[in-house]
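new request in #modeling-help
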Amino acid sequence: MSETSLDPKTAPSFPMAAKAAMKDVQLRRNVAHATDVIRAKRARVVEEMPDWQELREAGKQIREHTMKHLDFYLEEFEVNCTRAGGVVHWAKDAAEAQEIVVGLVKASGSNEVIKVKSMTTEEIALNSALEAEGIHPFETDLAELIIQLGHDRPSHIVVPALHKNRQQIREIFMREMRLSELGDRPEDLADAARVFLREKFLRVKTGVSGANFLIAETGGVCIVESEGNGRMCLTLPETLITIAGIDKVLPRYADLEVVLQLLPRSATGERMNPYNSVWTGVHAADGPKVFHVVLMDNARTEILADKESRQTLNCIRCAACQNACPVYRQTGGHAYGSVYAGPIGAILTPQLQQLQYAQSLPYASSLCGACYEVCPVKINIPEVLIHLRNKVVEQSKGTLNLEATGMKAMAMIFRNERRFRAAQRLGRMAETVLPSKDGWITWLPGILGGWTQARDLQEMPRETFRDWWEKRCADEH
Amino acid sequence: MLRRIRAANGGASDGQAVRSGWDALARNYKCNGTRGPEARLQLLEGRLRDYDAAVSRSDRENLALNVARRLKERGVERTVIPVGFTAEWLPDGLDFVVDQGMTTAELDAFDGVLTEATVAIAETGTVVLQNIPGQGRRSMSLVPDYHLCLVWIGNVVETVPEAMSLLQSKAALPTTFISGPSATADIEMTRIKGVHGPRILDVILFD
């Protein structure tokens, strides 16, 4: 798994990648264990909130309101952040964001950066861009460190290394930190990371972070985390560069009272995560002397323009949908071929690619709705999945498509009673030659075989409802 | 980019519409606590302990004594304190140094840090620190391995919304919400306390 590429442009389709992932027993065991634990913790702390549904509704409304007035709030953020001593940059896509960050790091006079875990920097593959310019990024979140040292890729939004168990992590640490001895208790491993990173925290002069929330009213930024690595990166360096999607903005400071209740309980199953940091621009004698914020579009405005799927932008990246998803829980994250895996990844990734890549992802779901139920801001993921499936079909119109042709033929048959009856008779005749077991057909020929690869098909009943009804009416007379 | 956003939203936002839209957002969640003072404190104690912080109570007269007892129990000899820390709460005979802009390496040489707090949230087991006298810079309460935080019971609220409305007027200050010692669950979802921030957090509630 160490060569996993999570570039949607080159990743294999989901069914192919999933098939390979399903064979990795260790991976499935690790993913199942981790998601079981988080789900149980989340359920416990959500249960103790009598106003959880009201909080979800408020979260949804705040996010919808923000997107509706995104131009206003981004400008307000820029004005207030600038007034507080921050420098705001705008990046239209990943390449522009990389270029800005690389330039800012160079200007800070450092060829190393310490990083807070950030999905946005994963989205734009910032580390490779930095390395290509001779800048060494040190990931400081424990899971991200495991990923970086293991030459691996994240498989979960909140717990990116959940696909690795303690023995695997121990091996990576011993090899990469050149340790001759190391226990495999989680405490031993965390200690090793503490020692390894402390020297970096005290030495490296430039920090790079993402953002959980940008507060328009104050120009402040909020980051939630657990380990204290975030606080180290936000307060010890001389220069701090924060990169955030334009969707991360929040209207007012008071809105934190909603998202700071929704996010920790949904993400890690904690009432509050150990540390939340809020800072506004540059503070005299407290933290970095230079502060930059890069506001990145990278296809978010295209999503905003789509009335039916713009709710995707309301996501606050808690990953509750990943933990709840019966598909993700079987395949793990890498099969999605994107840093955003699971249900949110299945709707976000294709849209970030403007539907030119990752077209198989909207189908990576049984539409069971578990994701919608746990979403803290009530994103109707199944609805967006169906909408995107429709778009994928629309997009392939004009090209020869067997499925579309089949569906058209089906529509023709269903519209006419005689054709429908004829098709039923034909079906009953045809199925007599197919292998079946206890009333279930396990194999279909040709392209229909795609259906029976993963499911069985129930045999047709000997008598249809129509036949039965007509016979019954005839008997009565 | 703003142009593209306006095109997607069918026009530019009007400030008045934005304000009235925000005012109209449904906020039917719990904004105020329902517990009495003692039940509120007990909730805070329980929630702090749940996430591995140790809590005790003290009356104001004996606060310095209890601070000394705590530091000795934890084997903390050299403690850094912020500018403006209330002098009468410092016990005699222990080594306290005021942070006048120390380097990170200097902070790293201390065993512990002693601070006050702006507000504590009972429901989530959280203490909130800001850069004001008695609470200090963000890095000061981060780098030393031990943190002792003194919370006046008058600053304890039950819910997150109550805390946010208290913080609103000082929103621009560097602010840190601390809920238990530094922790991680990145390895097999096993919660381990103490990664990069203080490995031990003690709280004393005083009246």
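bot summary: Chain A has a mean pLDDT of 93.
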